[in-house]
Design goal:
The protein has 371 residues and is mainly α. It contains 15 helices and no strands. The longest helix has 41 residues. 37% of the residues are buried.
Length: 371
């Protein structure tokens, strides 16, 4: 072996080690997402909870009548329909779809309940048939979106008008208000002196069920994959059409539950019940951290978003603010919930790119050491 060859073989491991060290340093210093407690305490869900707590405290300080069990009861009664419908809506938007017909399904359910009750049907059968009509409406949406493959935005805009029109056909301009007093009393009753409505127990169960489905089951994890890419989800074995179909069925069924609650809370069945509710639902879901583009979101964040919008609206009502202003506030929150994440991601991406460009020269080897 010549002296040159011997020198080269002795230097090569040293050069390789230097490059490896530089590369390791670069990978270690790259910006990474939060982990552990930092991710929990500084994540989107936590921020929504902090905003909710701050809003409640501000309302308690600035509005004398806000801090009372009566306020708690009426506030929660107001948010129950939104909270119910927001659960399946969260899963639907995570998949990259949407359902704008939810309020119309609730109105159709209310109209059918009124007509059947006025015709002398048993209230138990009336409630079951109201739930069935919601499930059938959801199946119709699911068939058009999942099986036929039509765009969900176009489909549910059409069925929004269709179901509301059917409600008007069913009951007309009439209103049925003679539902059993004990039933309507139950839907407005409170748990002791807390002011918390009794029906919140059932609502919490619905929230828990959807939370478990989304966060702790293979089906729920598949919805995130579906939202990122339907083709990729199909490639890994997720049945895209079936998943979407059952989500719309769930949305129709839960919307019917909201319609039943709305009817019995106010003891009034009308064709225009829950009108405009879809705007509040979508605003709360997006404000709660669900991406309108799909693939991102969580149930805790959505619950916080629903309660935040409900708290703001109720506080403004106590402050004698007009309904027009409330609609403007809801619309503003909807726009902010879509625009703010995009701005945040753009700023974060720009900072990451600038840091990478600054560190890139340091990661390059100083020169060749081969002989």
């Amino acid at each position: 072996m010549s002296d040159t060859q011997h020198t080269t073989e002795m230097v090569e491991p040293t050069a390789t080690s230097a490059v490896s060290a530089d590369t390791t340093k670069t990978l270690r210093d790259e910006p990474r997402g939060r982990t552990g407690w930092a991710r929990i305490l500084l994540g989107r869900d936590a921020i929504m909870i902090y905003l909710l707590i701050a809003t409640v405290i501000l309302a308690m300080v600035s509005i004398p009548r806000f801090a009372s069990p009566v306020t708690t009861g009426f506030l929660l009664l107001d948010v129950i329909p939104v909270l119910l419908i927001a659960m399946p809506m969260t899963l639907i938007i995570i998949t990259g779809e949407i359902d704008l017909s939810v309020a119309s399904i609730a109105g159709l359910t209310s109209a059918l309940m009124g007509v059947l009750w006025q015709a002398g049907w048993d209230i138990g059968i009336v409630l079951v048939l109201g739930l069935v009509i919601g499930v059938l409406a959801g199946m119709f949406n699911g068939f058009l979106v999942a099986v036929i493959g039509l765009p969900s935005l176009a489909v549910t805009i059409g069925t929004l008008a269709l179901f509301r029109g059917l409600a008007l056909v069913v009951i007309g301009d009439n209103a049925v208000a003679n539902f059993p007093p004990e039933l309507t009393g139950f839907f407005t009753s409170k748990i002791g002196t807390t002011g918390i409505p009794t029906v919140m127990i059932g609502v919490v169960l619905v929230v828990v069920v959807f939370g478990v489905i989304l966060h702790f089951t293979p089906f729920g994890r598949g919805l995130y994959a579906l939202g990122f890419s339907a083709e990729a989800a199909r490639f890994v074995g997720i049945h895209v059409a079936r998943s979407k179909f059952w989500l719309y069925v769930a949305s129709g069924g839960v919307s019917a539950l909201a319609g039943i609650f709305w009817t019995l809370r106010y003891s009034s069945a009308r064709s225009d019940n829950a009108s405009g509710l879809e705007l509040a639902v979508i605003a709360a879901v997006l404000l709660g951290g669900v991406s309108i583009f799909g693939g991102k979101g969580s149930i805790p964040g959505v619950v916080a978003g629903v309660l935040l919008i409900g708290t703001i609206n109720y506080a403004l009502r106590l402050g004698r603010v007009s309904d027009v202003v409330l609609i403007i506030v809801t619309g503003t929150l909807l726009i902010a919930s879509v625009v703010a994440p995009s701005i945040f991601d753009a700023v974060k991406r720009r900072r990451h790119d600038r840091r990478v460009r600054r560190e890139l020269p340091q990661a390059q080897p100083s020169g060749s050491v081969r002989a």
